[in-house]
Amino acid sequence: MTRLLSTEGAGEPIQIHDDLAFERPVNGLALAYWRDRCAGRTMPARTDIDPAGMRGFITNVGLVDVLTDERGQPAFRVRLAGTAIEDVFGPMQGKLLRELPPYFAARWTGLFVAMADDGVPRRITTRVAFKSQDFLRLEALFAPLSDAPPRVTMLFVCLAVWPDV
Question: Which domains does the chain have, with CATH numbers?
């Protein structure tokens, strides 16, 4: 099943796929790594994630803290953004999602909330809607991590971007 996430005028809708049939090899590698890290649990903890095990896709990896802001609303901090991510979207490591450009934050906040609520890995597809790069396609793995199951405390993301020719 595929569902569309409206992005309130900030680019084409984001497609959230239940199937994990990734087109891009880095995402398949990341999914296999995440599954291995689960070790029989529904999701791994942050401490189960080790950069040494991510050869071949680490530049595409992002880690996003799932937080609650001062008003009790969901908030997200980009703990890690690989170079392949920052090459497309610019510097974001260490920043709260709401500190990034408003149209970027508006486009991705709903997705991050949905991924934290789902608590299972998902395949995401869309077109990049940042700095006139809409000629780029995007496929990503969003998978949950938790130091306090069943609550998702971090999102493990592997993002692949390529020209749509």
Answer: 2-163 (3.30.450.20)
